């Protein structure tokens, strides 16, 4: 398979508002003011081209054999894939005419790298994977079931001595309904099966050359007073030369049942242990000059369950109904990680450090029960509220007063703080929520009657929390931008029972740290934590099939007229300002195009 990609970029000088460094406008002057900033950073033409060639080989064979009540099936084979990828980039600044973005019409500096979008910069990679696989299926009279699987996989992403891994699995089943002693139940019991499985798979997604120590080149301008840029390299990257497969071990038990030929149920409980996750190795002294290498030193355990129910009933020759319900839940906990101090601080704006016992998706924050009012005692130039020191939450010229958020001093030490910023000493912080979608469910139902058919699909999440550090969610979180309709209920002396605090811009700075964000009124807290649970009618379809006698006169097999709707109704928290289905990155900023409502009509013809 061959893929080719070509992307061209261009821009030019344009006038823009400078709301980052200054905002010398108010509600009146901004209406007549002229943008003052001449943005020159986009005055260029650039082009990136990439190509990749992927080769795939799959070879397999199977064999079946029956000996009396014993049934055997064997499958074996080999698969391999290898890919070569390359990308180049070119850019030239200062367009003579921004309406004609061509390299020959640009007169400024030229570059072959340095794109702000790193996915466009020059790169060249190659990788290959290969695997041998085998499967044996056995059953005795459809009662006792056995399946054995084995994979032996290799990947070029690991050192030579660690490239290959063996991943076996096995499952057993007992179809009780087929036993002779169950013959008396077959008038109403259609299926009853017990299942269990255990097995492992490998994960090789570790990035290219992750086990190789690389010397990254640079041109230090501080050498020779900046007049000459001699080529240089940084320190060799610190890597683990024994990097290998991440292994996922899964145990599962389940049961299937169906009665009266119309009502069925299936339940599974599973435990998944991920071992050898990439994690920071041992902590190194600062004198080493490098961060700890990523090693196969992390473990995680996931426990969950899945339930499905279905009902299907033929009421008559012309009428039937059906209902399918699916419900599932899981929770993942880190069981091994090199973070003995259990620090809560962020690694990146959206990545938390793990520690033993860390629950994936957990949110740490303060507890807020109300807004401050005129009768609250505020002293020390707005830093002390009812005798409790709030200064560690403040930034800039902000002063607490009536209309601001009231935080609870949970540890009773008289200071709103993070303590030592660890899971064992977290001060007034506590786990206030979790971003993991819990109790996910789906409901499909419908029926037919005399040519008419109707079906609907509902989808939802029973529990999910999120803290969104965004101006679209939190009023004036970053700068004095526009206020959105969902933020209109803010505190004033005449509206003391408001939801939002007294407006104050510039709350983005992280004052507490330790896994929280924001400052002043918008330190991560319970009061403004988003409730992302929802129920949505994803699809509803109504159709009518014309009578066969009429359709056959036109020499057609079937004619069906239908109307269909997508995302027509959503039930969610009335204060949720974003679509509950958008991904975490979009929620973080709060600026995303929501899922659209769609209504369509059509005709199906079968010849």
Task: Describe the secondary structure blueprint for this structure.
Layout: E1 2-10, E2 14-16, E3 37-39, E4 44-67, E5 70-93, E6 110-111, E7 123-140, E8 144-155, E9 164-175, E10 189-203, E11 217-218, E12 232-233, E13 246-259, E14 263-280, E15 294-316, E16 319-336, E17 362-365, E18 368-371, E19 378-379, E20 384-385, E21 388-389, E22 405-407, E23 430-434, E24 438-449, E25 452-463, E26 465-466, E27 530-531, E28 534-545, H1 548-553, E29 558-572, H2 584-589, E30 598-606
Antiparallel strand pairs: 1-4, 2-3, 4-5, 5-6, 5-7, 7-8, 8-9, 9-10, 10-13, 11-12, 13-14, 14-15, 15-16, 16-24, 17-23, 18-22, 19-20, 20-21, 24-25, 25-28, 26-27, 28-29, 29-30
SS-based class: mainly beta
* Mean model confidence by pLDDT: 88
Q: Kindly state the number of beta strands.
A: 30
How much strand?
A: over 45%
**Poorly predicted ranges (pLDDT <50, ≥5 residues)?**
none
From the alpha-carbon coordinates, what is the Rg to the nearest angstrom? 31 Å
Shape: globular
Proportion in helices:
under 10%
Number of helices: 2
Oligomer state equals: single chain
Give the CA-CA distance, first to last residue.
36 Å
Major sheet characteristics: 17 strands, antiparallel
């Amino acid at each position: 398979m061959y893929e080719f990609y070509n992307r061209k970029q261009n821009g030019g000088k344009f006038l823009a508002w400078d709301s980052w460094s200054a905002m010398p406008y108010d509600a009146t002057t901004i209406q007549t003011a002229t943008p003052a900033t001449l943005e020159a950073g986009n005055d260029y033409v650039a082009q990136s081209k990439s190509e990749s060639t992927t080769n795939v080989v799959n070879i397999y064979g199977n064999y079946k054999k029956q000996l009396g009540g014993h049934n055997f099936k064997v499958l074996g084979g080999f698969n391999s894939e290898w890919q070569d990828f390359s990308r180049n980039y070119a850019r030239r600044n200062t367009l003579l005419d921004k309406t004609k973005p061509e390299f020959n019409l640009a007169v400024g500096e030229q570059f072959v790298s340095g794109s702000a979008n790193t996915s466009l910069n020059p790169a060249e990679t190659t990788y290959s994977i290969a695997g041998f696989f085998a499967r044996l299926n056995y059953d005795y009279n459809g009662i006792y079931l056995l399946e054995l699987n084995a994979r032996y996989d290799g990947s070029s992403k690991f050192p030579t001595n660690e490239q290959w891994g063996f991943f076996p699995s096995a499952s057993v089943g007992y179809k009780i309904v087929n036993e002779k002693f169950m013959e008396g139940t077959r008038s109403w019991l259609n299926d009853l099966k017990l299942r269990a499985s255990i097995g492992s798979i490998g994960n090789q997604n570790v990035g290219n050359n992750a086990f190789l120590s690389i010397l990254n080149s640079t041109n230090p301008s501080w050498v020779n007073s900046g007049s000459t840029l001699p080529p240089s390299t940084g320190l060799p990257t610190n890597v683990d030369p024994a990097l290998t497969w991440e292994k996922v071990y899964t145990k599962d038990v389940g049961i299937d049942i169906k009665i009266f030929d119309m009502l069925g149920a299936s339940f599974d409980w599973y435990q998944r242990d991920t071992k050898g996750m990439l994690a920071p190795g041992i902590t190194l002294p600062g004198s080493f000059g490098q961060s700890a290498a990523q090693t196969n030193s992390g473990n995680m355990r996931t426990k969950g369950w899945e339930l499905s129910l279905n009902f299907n009933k033929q009421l008559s020759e012309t009428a039937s109904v059906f209902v399918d319900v699916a419900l599932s839940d899981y929770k993942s906990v880190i069981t091994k990680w090199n973070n003995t101090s259990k620090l809560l601080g962020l690694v990146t704006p959206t990545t938390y450090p793990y520690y033993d016992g860390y629950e994936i998706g957990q949110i740490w924050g303060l507890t807020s029960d109300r807004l401050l009012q005129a009768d609250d005692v505020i002293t020390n130039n707005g830093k002390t509220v009812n005798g409790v020191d709030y200064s560690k939450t403040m930034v800039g010229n902000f002063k607490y007063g009536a209309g601001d958020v009231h935080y609870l001093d949970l540890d009773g030490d008289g200071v709103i703080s993070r303590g030592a910023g660890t899971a064992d000493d977290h001060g007034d912080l506590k786990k206030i929520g979790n971003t993991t979608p819990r109790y996910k469910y789906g409901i499909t139902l419908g029926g037919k009657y005399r040519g008419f058919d109707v079906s609907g699909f509902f989808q939802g999440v029973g529990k999910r929390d999120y803290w969104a550090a965004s101006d679209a969610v939190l009023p004036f979180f970053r700068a004095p931008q526009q206020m959105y309709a969902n933020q209109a209920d803010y505190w004033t002396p005449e509206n003391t029972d408001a939801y939002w605090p007294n407006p104050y811009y510039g709350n983005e700075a992280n004052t507490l740290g330790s896994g929280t964000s924001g400052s002043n009124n918008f330190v991560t807290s319970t009061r403004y934590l988003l409730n992302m649970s929802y129920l949505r009618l994803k699809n509803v379809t109504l159709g009518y099939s014309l009578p066969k006698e009429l359709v056959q006169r036109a020499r057609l097999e079937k004619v069906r007229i239908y109307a269909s709707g997508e995302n027509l109704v959503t039930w969610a928290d009335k204060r949720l300002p974003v679509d509950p289905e958008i991904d975490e990155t979009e929620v973080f900023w709060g600026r995303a195009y929501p899922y659209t409502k769609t209504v369509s009509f059509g005709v199906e013809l079968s010849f």
